[in-house]
Design goal:
This protein is α+β, with helices and mostly antiparallel strands. The chain has one domain. It is built from 6 helices and 6 strands. It is globular, with a radius of gyration of 15 Å. The two termini are 30 Å apart.
Length: 143
């Protein structure tokens, strides 16, 4: 069964870049079943469960380091969402000092991924698995 979005029916995953961009508002509220394959979600949950919450968040803070804000490639990317989009990478923009405004997010992405197509979204509060550190998801066409 397809998804109805803005009076358009999509399969489970977008077939092209334009469909991905059009789906950003939908994706921010999607459950993991739409974003990750079951195996990937299980790996993510096992990774989180292998340590306490403080250690889990601390590992992310260590990766971010003193650089604020910083882009990191998502180690548990939304492979199900991106299954038809070869050459699209999933990054996370992290900022320990809190939410960035949209203009700053756009400036940072354009500076990091020069001349690349991109789209981004911030998950809804209910969808955030790491609400302790502000972040948004950035998808970049690397080809």
């Amino acid at each position: 069964m397809g998804l109805i979005l803005k009076k358009r029916i999509f399969k489970e995953a977008p077939d092209n870049w334009d469909e991905l961009v059009e789906m950003m508002d939908f994706i921010k509220d999607s459950s993991w079943e739409f974003l990750r394959f079951e195996k990937g979600e299980m790996e993510y949950e096992e990774y989180k469960a292998s340590m306490g919450r403080g250690e889990f968040v601390g590992k992310i803070k260590n990766k971010i380091g003193n650089g604020n804000p910083v882009f990191l490639e998502n180690i548990f990317p939304y492979k199900k969402l991106l299954q038809n989009l070869f050459g699209v990478k999933h990054y996370v923009l992290w900022n320990q000092e809190g939410r960035l405004n949209n203009e700053e997010i756009e400036r940072l992405i354009k500076g990091e991924f020069i001349n690349k197509r991109y789209c981004w979204m911030e998950r809804s509060d209910e969808g955030k698995s790491i609400p302790e550190i502000w972040h948004c998801h950035v998808f970049v066409e690397e080809k």
